[in-house]
Amino acid sequence: MQSGIESKAFDRFSETCSAVFTDSAAQWKGQGGKVLGYFCSAMPEEIATAAGMLPVRLRATGSDGTELSDSFLSSLNCTFPRHAFNMALKGEYDFVDAMVMFNSCDHIRRVYDHWVRQIKTPYVKIFSLPKKAEAAQIDWFRGELDQLCADLREHFGVELDDAGLAKAIKQHNLTRRLLRRLYDLRKAERPPISGAECLAVTVSSTAMAAADYNEVLEQLLEDLEGSDGLPRPRARLLVMGGELDDPRYLKEIEDQGCLVIADSLCFGSRLFWKDVDENDPDPLQALARYYVADRPSCARMFTEYDKRAAYVREMIRDFDVDGAIFERLTFCEIYGFEQYSMANDFKEWQVPLLCMDREYILGAIGQLRTRVQAFLETMEN
Length: 381
Ligand code: SF4
Known about the structure:
By secondary structure, the protein is α/β, with parallel strands linked by helices. The chain has helices spanning about 10-15, 25-30, 45-50, 80-90, 105-120, 135-155, 160-185, 195-205, 210-225, 245-255, 285-295, 305-320, 335-350, 365-380, and strands at about 35-40, 55, 100, 125, 235-240, 260-265, 325-330, 355-360.
């Protein structure tokens, strides 16, 4: 079920989402700009923007195999880092000038160990990301971000000060507010945009300069406001889980007659459901607090589960959700634990939940369709 949006703005997002080295990045590089690449959404894009660099969250979109990375990563590793490192070995991330990693999980940490030895990126560093969200951890993370800023100043000769950070926070908060406006439209009985289309829009927010992105998104909102909207679906679904950056996965689900109208994904609502505090006199402290404690957290933050469950429950209520799908990449322990805990809560809440494992690259489509159809029939019965 796709709305088939007729909008140049949407076409731009669709293109951006279907490539890694996007037109935006090519233009940016063409003008002599530097690109800061990263994997995990804990990377404050505001720091790259304030440094005059383009933040690009690296995906493995278009990857067709792991023939090179198989020499470094085992078949028991998550398929996202395996495909991503394969692309790095093939030189498809050579447009990246600075690569910033976090110990988001052991699989990504292993990629770092190989990246520093195999890939010739001018600047590569891994920073420590806390697993708890209390004052001590926020201060710790502020220290890590301070080190990152010092490195960028030294390595790229950029100016990176509080005024620049405060300005970047405002720009990225505008992105967050605009995306929340987009999600508000999905609360309607007949939303103007499908889940797959919406994922293309949110993924693009991690691959374009904030100022440019905000302009295009404002145009899309204009194009959508007042549209008739999609027909009433068989079910309104929420999708949750970890790294999902391929709209085709949601399209396969929605082609069974349902509509994904909300999510708890790290390329989705978790990126923008809250704002960074613009009034904090210390913008780096505000960023540390936001990325460690304020925004809806990643499942790796084990002490924050109750907050995440409350967040999902709020989504179910606010978006009038009928059921949910929990997707996770095979071998992802972090979302394995989360899936187990959520399954218990959904049983208690008496909200239907379908748990599915998948590979990073879209496949086993027949099985996916069959399972979603069976899930929808169970809900209808
Ligand atoms: S999906 Fe899980 S295992 Fe894979 S990179 Fe993300 S956190 Fe790590």
